[in-house]
Each structure stands twice: as structure tokens, then as C-alpha cells.
UniProtKB/TrEMBL annotation:
Lineage summary: Bacteria, Bacillati, Chloroflexota, Dehalococcoidia, Dehalococcoidales
Keywords (A to Z) from UniProt: Carbohydrate metabolism, Gluconeogenesis, Hydrolase, Lyase, Magnesium, Metal-binding, Schiff base
Subunit structure: Homooctamer; dimer of tetramers.
Assigned EC number: 3.1.3.11, 4.1.2.13
Protein name: Fructose-1,6-bisphosphate aldolase/phosphatase
Residues bound to Mg(2+) 1: 11, 18, 52, 94
GO MF term set: fructose 1,6-bisphosphate 1-phosphatase activity; fructose-bisphosphate aldolase activity
Annotated source species: Candidatus Dehalogenimonas loeffleri
UniProt cofactor(s): Mg(2+)
Amino acid sequence: MKVTVSVIKADIGGFVGHSDAHPDCLCTADSALARAKEKGLLIDYHVTKCGDDLQLIMTHQKGENNGDIHEMAWDTFVECTEVAKKLKLYGAGQDLLTDAFSGNIKGMGPGAAEMEFEERVSEPIVVFMADKTSSGAWNMPLYKMFADPFNTIGLVIAENMHQGFKFEVHDVKESKKITFKTPEEIYDMLVFIGAANRYPVKAVYTLSGEIAASSSTQKLAFLAGRYVGKDDPVCIVRCQGAFPAVGEALEPFAKPYLVEGWMRGSHYGPLMPVSVAQSQPTRFDGPPRVTALGFQLSEGRLVGPRDFFADVSYDQARQKANDMAYMMREHGPFEPHRLPLDEMEYTTMPQVSRKLESRFEAI
Ligand code: F6R
Ligand code: MG
Ligand code: MG
């Protein structure tokens, strides 16, 4: 049977500050999705959080970009925002950029990753969710999962993976996309996806066109025309068989790497793999976090989750991320901890420059 997995997320208010999602908001979202399931709109759902982001993981048969599903998710965020407002949570309704739903949740603030496929005899999927970072955060792990034999041995020794994959890469500034075939075009592709903030990997496909991975790529700052929080992206990866084994999909996160985000969305910091319970940023509003929930689909039913990073084998990654956090923090307001001027989400440069304009002299 054909199933659509939709992961739609929004920051509708933080508890405390920008750190965590409030249990009452999670409960409200759960009841809203339970009603949608009762009505038959959803096959199944799982409500969770990653830091201050409310995550709706849903299955249905309506396909991607479906107006009914998106509207129901939007209404759920609106209802949760009411709860957040009553509790005076921080930044209540932060990611809801418009007043009324207009057909598709994309471009309205919330992030969405969706994929439709024919459910296999056994269909394991992993949903990755990150807080205090942006959509380009998936570029390196997706490259490793689907194109790096040092990460994914299946690319070398599994007959059904040996022919490689296709990567759909977006240019979020100029709103265009291009598809690269790996391994043949990895050098060309890396020119682009190495600049992860501008060229996020939107999706990965097998050569026969089967969807393998799908990520959210919206840029809140472009949508709102001002800083409204980092994009805190999500990504769905299908596993086993012609796709990476679950362990190959999780492996990139064993080596923490630097991503954009962290305090005020204006710093580089290590992406730390954590359990859902440990997903709330603390130190300097971070460091950026990533969670991974695994499900087996059964006729669209979400059997799970398994909280993969709640495991001792990621202890060392967490330790390393903490060490990297100390190293980066030592730079204080200096680059390369602070982002370059044009990448920073907050800046006082225009005001300070204006104030000091008359004091600048030619040299
Ligand atoms: C980063 C983030 C936080 C806030 C910071 C200041 O994505 O959400 O680091 O930027 O806590 O928040 P405001 O400006 O809301 O006081
Ligand atoms: Mg927030
Ligand atoms: Mg967030």
C-alpha cells in the first residue's frame, strides 16, 4: 500500500526561554492528532519534541503537500499556541508567521519533511530532528549515509546499493534545484553542498527513483524578512535493503561536526546526538542537538519509537561535542565561533556603524 510520512514541526513557545517544549503543548497536540486519526485523516501519529520544537510525525494516504494534512497540522500549532500563550511560554506562536492558513504549510513558518512510497514487506524509517541549527545541518550526514563508503559499507559490499544514489540539492537563495548522481558526480556536488547553509540536500533517491531521504529546507529568516529563530530542521530516512542499514544511517552522528546555529542563531557549534529527554539546549542555548527516532511501519501504523541516541555508544560523541563546545566558546565574540557578518541572525552592525560613521577616517 502507498503511505505518506509527514513530519511537520514548529516552535510555538519555549519552556523555559528557548530551551524546551512544555508538556501541556505536547498533550494538546496529541489530542488534536488523535481526533484527526479518529476522523480517518491520519493512519497514525507520534507527537514528540526536540528542544523547543513541537514535532508532529504522521502517516496517511493523502500524498505530499496535501492541503487537509497541512491545515490540520497548522490548526494543531494554533491550538498549542493558545496553550503556550496562557502559560506565557517564551515566544508563543514564534514560527507561525501568518494569521491564516493558505493551502500549504510551506512558506508559513513551520518546517516539513514528507515522503510518499509503497510500503515494503518491512519498512524501517528513522526520523532525525535537530534544534538550534539550520537545514544545511543534514548535508554532511546525508552525504556520509548515501555516498561515503567509510561510513556506509553497503555502498561497497551490498549489491542493491553499489550503483549509488541521486541527491536533490536546493539553492535556497535563488529558489532553484539540481540533481547529482553519486558516486560519479561527488566532486561537483561537494562544491555546492559543502556550502550547506545555501545548498541544503532536499532529498535522496535510488537510481530507479525510489525516495530514500527527505528533509525540511525552509529558511525562516528569508520567509519573515527578519530573524525569527533558526530553522531547526527534520529529516526522514528509509533504511535497510536498498537503503542504508539503520546503523549506517546513525553512524554520521558518532562524529560531531560543526553546524550553524547555537546562541542567537549566530554561532558555529557541534551537533550533539541526544535522547529526546536530553534534547533541551542548555549551555549558551545549546550546543545544537539532534535526536533520532526509529519506527517500523505496519500498514502505515508507526510501530515505535526507538530513541536511538539514548544509548551508551553515543556517550563518546557527546563527550567530544562537549569538548568541541569548550573549544568554540573560548573564541567568545570572535569568528570562527561567531558566524561571518552576512550569516549572523542578529547584528548590531548597522546601528553601531551609523553611530560611528563620522569618526571613520580614510587610511
Ligand atoms: C537560537 C535561539 C536562542 C535565542 C536567544 C535570544 O536559535 O533560539 O539562542 O536566539 O535565547 O532569544 P530572544 O531574542 O528571543 O531573547
Ligand atoms: Mg524558540
Ligand atoms: Mg528550536
